[in-house]
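Input sequence (355 aa), recorded before submission:
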Amino acid sequence: MIRIKARAPTGRATVLPAVWGAVAVGYKFGCPLAQQNGLGARIVTSAVFFAVGTGLILHVRHTLLRELRIARKVARTAQNVVLRPPPPRVDGIDVAAAQLSADRGASVGGDLYEAIATEHGVRVVMGDVRGHGLAALGTVAALLGSFREAAHDEPALDRVLRRLDRALARHLRERARAEHPAHGGPEPDAPVAEEFVTVLLLEIGPDGEVRALNCGHPWPYLLSGTTVGPLSHLDPLPPLGPFPLPAELTARSCGRLLPGELLVLFTDGAEEARDARGRFFPLPKVLANAVRGQPVTPQTVLRTVVSALLDHTRGTPDDDVALLVLRNARGPGPRAAATEPGARFTPRVKAEPLR
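Predicted structure, token format:
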């Protein structure tokens, strides 16, 4: 659990209002002018009390803004520890990530991502916790902690997902006991009872084969040359939380990520972001235009998408947004590797100008 402890008021914070109050009281009862009933005396008295009141208000405002800045700094630090920036390259896979929070007060979100090199391949997780802010950050910490261990320990991707499911259930039980200690569990209308998480697990093998397990999360987009297409059209499983995982659980093969190709993982806040006229953010078109320039790197794609998204929403997205861009930097580019055997992705969107 993440706690932000309130600091005790400093000497300056308590002495200054006391001094201003003493000045007002001293003027009222000690100044002869304050005892007079003339118009001029009343005007002067009103001006004195107005100045004292304005000073108190400005002092309180300054104190609150300082405490808010401290709270935001603590929240950002906590999120950077939990949702640590990924390294620029993981076992031959270039990585770039960004996260935008809809909670302006706390500056933290409920999205999670991680890419880890293991003996089983590069394993990647992208998830979206219901809600945002500090309440969702605890769930993010529980899931990422479980993934970082299970990704190395479990030889099969389905067992990694089951570890995440158990970690989420355990975290929700502990949260329920903390929020409803008298009942020993969540009330029917409590937020904990409605908690769920969408999760996408990917495994990229040494030969570029991509295997996936998807629990209610949007499928990533493949960027190959100047074309963009979804990684898969399979129906995902239900999100983690409300329903148990099926007894038979097998990772699906999604073809191969050839050298030079990119995968863009994202949370639904990206595609569901609306502009002032209610139009959704055209993520596939933005990605298609991002790959028209050369050279194409995860950083350039990420900057293009984030810039277009902030422009589309005027800098204030309605939901948390996380983006994770992966590029196969092993061996030659896509053209030289096009003759390699293996399943191929089917691009759906070609580059075209935004309108």
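Checked by second reader. Residues 39-82 form the longest helix (44 residues).
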